[in-house]
Write a structure and sequence with these properties.
It is elongated and about 105 Å long. The chain is mainly beta. The protein contains no helices and 48 strands.
């Protein structure tokens, strides 16, 4: 039930001479991870890290963790780009299991005898007690600093005789009971307006979700085995799943309502964490999942990427690495490798990921019907261009994506170019690099291929009188449903507009063209009577265009057809 680490190590007196913050000795690690011990030379226990970006004051990524260097458990915060560290809690009792998001840190606190939930604003230093009930409240999760959704804290609560999920809204300073079922609900996670948890109401552990906007509860998993320890980011929920006889990592896409198996190794993979979708940089388009993996005997940290696919081992030390967290290019975990100062050490480590940047651009951006364009860009790492690589083109990025092409695009300078032809509708793609022995996967931002429909020049009589009703028509590709109105005919009159000093073409009338379906095109037509003449001139000059736009095509306009309207037979007012 408790996702945090509860193993207690005998306290060793802190050696003041060893408290200087410094870099840990170089240790073996995969080439795409630069490791650093965030708590070196401390003969005490630091564990259970949570990481986030603190943008209001320090403009940096930070790790928060629980630490017993003072004889009790405190919460500490550490900058991931510098040695800066600060003790966040100073109460004599224990404070444990921190969860960080933006400027907010939530944690469990035993200063009032029973475990309560507290919340600290890092930017203001204000600490708020969220619970005052005499029962235990544990396992907090916070989602904060997102202007569109507000800040919320979820936790598991024993006040009703079983474990329920409760939620606190910072904006309204209100607490709500999310679950009222008599079974246990534990392991909460929150992202914006959505809360997920593990729920035992069906006899096994399932994953449930509550939406604070829709005020609805949904069961996400229905398999008879256990699913626990969920994490959520955007529309993706990941969790550990025992349906195959061991613990695997699964993902559920809320947008597509589809489930995906992420890991397939026979050993246990547990405690998944997701990269936030609101961060900036090359990780925005997909989801990076980190988890604890026992396939090599000791527990290691692994990473899987959606949609790029593939598994990547982030730690290969012989000791255990546990309970990972991820934000941007940073992964943090609890590490047991250093036995130099204490028999059962626990330190907090950070891994800086070598995540290449993959950009993509379309040229030209506006494409005629059945036309061609190209997608190109660069694949770069911090150390320079990645070089020759295989770039995949994805039609849609989600939990069940398949690439639309597997073309190998190579260039020693890291550039790539993909040509596309016979384009018939607007399409959105992402480019995906699946990683190699020294680089993790990368996903580009969305590129849009804006394709225009094809329109012929309208046909209309070359000359007619104002009192006549005439037919205007054009051809349209692709085919559209007969009886629909996919085209508008716009009529412009050459005139001196009120207040103008020169003659110009002014839109005078618009009519909808009705579709008649043919084998390879659509014919659109309309009957039109034009407005009366503006003066006593015998004729007026007109032009007509056909225009089209729908969800599958960019706005397009035909060439114009010029015609003359004769006003001699129109009865002018006396």
């Amino acid at each position: 039930m408790r996702r945090q680490l509860r193993t207690t190590v005998p306290l060793v007196l802190v050696l003041l001479s060893l408290l200087a913050i410094g870099a840990a000795p170089a240790l073996a690690a995969p080439p795409y991870v630069a490791e650093e011990c965030l708590t070196p030379l401390l003969p005490t226990t630091q564990q259970a890290p949570s990481i986030t970006r603190w943008s209001e004051v320090r403009e940096t990524e930070i790790a928060v963790f629980e630490d017993d260097r003072n004889g009790n458990w405190d919460i500490y915060v550490r900058d991931l780009w510098s040695p800066w560290e600060q003790q966040l809690t100073t109460a004599i009792a224990d404070q444990r299991h921190p969860s960080a998001s933006g400027s907010w840190v939530a944690f469990e606190d035993a200063r009032n005898v029973d475990w309560e939930i507290y919340l600290v604003n890092l930017s203001t230093g204000v600490e708020t007690r969220l619970t005052t009930n005499g029962a235990a409240q544990l396992d907090p999760a916070v989602s904060g600093d997102w202007m569109s959704t507000g800040t919320r804290v979820a936790w598991e609560d024993e006040r009703n005789g079983n474990w329920d999920i409760y939620l606190y809204d910072v904006g309204t300073a209100t607490t709500m009971r999310v679950t009222a079922n008599a079974a246990d609900q534990v392991d909460p996670a929150v992202d914006g307006t959505r809360v997920v948890w593990a729920d035992r109401r069906n006899g096994n552990w399932d994953i449930y979700l509550y939406d604070t906007v829709k005020k609805t509860t949904a069961r996400l998993t229905t398999n008879g085995a256990d699913q626990k320890a969920p994490a959520i980011s955007g529309t993706m929920v990941v969790y550990q799943d025992r349906r195959n006889g061991n613990w695997d990592i699964y993902g559920y896409d809320l947008a597509t309502k589809k489930e995906r198996r992420v890991t397939r190794n026979a050993a246990d993979q547990t405690l998944p964490a997701l990269s936030p979708r609101r961060e900036s940089g090359p990780m925005v388009p997909g989801w990076r999942i980190v988890y604890q993996d026992a396939r090599n005997g000791a527990a290691d940290i692994y990473l899987s990427d959606i949609p790029a696919g593939g598994e990547f081992r982030l730690t290969d030390d012989g000791a255990d690495q546990l309970a990972p967290a991820i934000y941007g290019p940073h992964v943090a975990w609890t590490d047991l490798r250093d036995t130099s100062l204490v028999a059962s050490p626990r330190d907090v480590y950070r891994g800086l990921l070598s995540v290449p940047s993959l950009d993509a651009a379309v040229d030209p951006e506006l494409i005629p019907y059945n036309g061609a364009t190209s997608i190109g860009g660069w694949l770069d790492s911090w150390a320079g261009p990645v070089g020759a690589a295989r770039i995949w083109r994805y039609l849609r990025v989600g939990v069940d994506d398949q690439p639309t092409t597997a073309a190998t695009l190579t260039a020693t300078d890291g550039s790539y170019l993909m040509s596309l032809s016979s384009l018939k509708q607007t399409t959105r793609y992402r480019m995906v690099y699946r990683g190699d022995a020294t680089h993790l996967p990368a996903v580009s931002d969305v590129v849009t291929l804006n394709v225009k429909a094809w329109l012929s020049t309208p046909t209309i009589p070359k000359e007619f009188s104002y009192h006549k009703t005439v037919t205007v028509s054009c051809l349209l590709r692709p085919r559209h449903r007969a009886g629909s109105y996919p085209v508008k005919f716009q009529f412009y009159r050459f005139m001196l507009a009120p207040g103008a000093t020169s003659w110009d073409w002014v839109l005078a009338k618009t009519v909808n063209g009705k579709a008649a379906d043919y084998s390879t095109y659509t014919k659109c037509s309309a009957r039109v009577t034009l407005p009366p003449p503006l003066n006593t001139a015998p004729t007026e000059k007109w032009r007509v265009y056909a225009v089209h736009r729908d969800a599958s095509h960019a706005a397009s306009q035909s060439a114009y057809r010029a015609f003359t309207v004769n006003s001699l037979y129109y009865p002018l007012p006396l």
